[in-house]
Amino acid sequence: MFYDLHVHTSLSIGENTVEEVVEMAKKIGLDGIGIVRYHPELVTIPKDNDIDIVDAVMVKAESAEELNEIVRRMRNRAEIIMVHGGNYDVNRAACENSMVDILCHPELGRRDSGLDHIAVKAAKQNDVMIEINFREILESHTKQRSYVLSSLKRNVMLCNKYDVKMITCSGAVSKWNMRSCRDMASIAHLLGLELGEAINTVSNNAKEAVERNRNKMQKGDVKGVDTLGA
Q1: Residue 95: its pLDDT value, please?
Q2: What is the value of pTM for the model shown?
Q3: Domain tally for the chain?
């Protein structure tokens, strides 16, 4: 099964409705799609019998303390917890928090990759995936694109060295930004992942995280989180 777990709709910062994005996902051959929100309690995401719609929450924080508090409150309200990366302290805190599933674009707005061996070792220990964000490449230009590509290559190298799972996502804010998993896996491969691992970044890695969290939520076994209403 092929997944893109980072897609924005009108429920967050995207241009299109969930239904429009889902139809595009079907056209480009996706089996599952992560609909990103910032406030999961505000609206219920519609389901579709032909595609797996995953409820994903993006956590934006200014500090490690704020990040950990938001993640604790949100963990049992979403199937995937993502962290908006870029700030090194937030990047590292996300890698050190076992309730986080994905650290998104750690290189965002930086001249370096946003990660080092300390953060990546923590990501391995806590099973936090590092994102390759296609939109960061798509929307960058000239010198900025060279920074983005070199940062992504460094993060791939670090994740390879410490055996950390990566996930490739479109980061789309429009249905026209969405890409097939073949395209996204090709990017991951060009950045330095072996072909099999590049394919895993759009398939098994995402599928396993979604299934693991769903099982925990069904059992009420989401570590470190109070039940709703407590």
Answers
A1: 98
A2: 0.92
A3: 1
